[in-house]
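Posted in: Protein Modeling Q&A

I'm a second-year student putting together a small comparison for a lab meeting, and my supervisor asked me to include a predicted structure for 2,3-bisphosphoglycerate-dependent phosphoglycerate mutase. I've never done this before, so apologies if this is the wrong subforum. The sequence is pasted below exactly as I got it from our records. If anyone can share the structure token output, I'd also love a short note on what stands out.
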Amino acid sequence: MSKLILVRHGQSIWNDRNLFTGWVDIPLSQKGIFEALNAGEKLSKFNIDIVYTSKLARAIQTALIILSKVETQKTPLIIHFNGKMKKWSNYASNIEPIPIIRKKALNERYYGTLQGLNKKEVGLKYGEQQLKLWRRSFDVEPPGGESLKDNLERTLPFFKKKIIPDLDDNKNVLIVAHGNSLRAITKYIENLDEQQIIKVEIPTGTPIVYNYENKIFKDKVIL
Ligand SMILES: O=C(O)[C@H](O)COP(=O)(O)O
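Accepted answer (user: helix_wrangler)
Welcome! Here is the predicted structure, written out as tokens:
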């Protein structure tokens, strides 16, 4: 049996200001740093074998803070896949690494021209109903951006191709990502339909743990 742990990054500076963020690469707020530390404390006794994050700083920052709290002799190691960084930085003969793999597939949903706008002001300008459609419908795209369906179509192939095999290999996997990329994964592993996923909210800095055995996700616990 293996474990899958999902964590949405801690609060970012733009979460705090209620701005659409998407792919804008905003770091954690002070509260977000505390949330990440708190998540790390909750996960301190977990034996984490591999970590996946998005390419965005708020997820990477959260993952590194969590790993600073995990009690292990292993060494967190950010994996680089290109050029000299690949050749020169992944050398780790005497250490047992916890590889940290950063992938665009796990990025937040791209919010298009809404990025940087205040969510409340968008609601006042376009109406609450439109705001809700842009934020929580399954397949309505925000202007120039990705719907949850689009997000799911880039996140799930990666999840199935790379992360499921790790779980099948009995590795305990931590994914630190975003509200919508984690909703996409949740839809798949909990077998939710398009109506059910609309209501799912993923809180910041809160570990969600599943046991995985014989291709089945079970025993969900929110820490
Ligand atoms: O990108 C953002 O603004 C948030 O991280 C997620 O926003 P949402 O809850 O409006 O989808």
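A couple of things worth pointing out for your meeting: The two ends are 19 Å apart (CA to CA). The domain at 2-222 is CATH 3.40.50.1240 (Rossmann fold).
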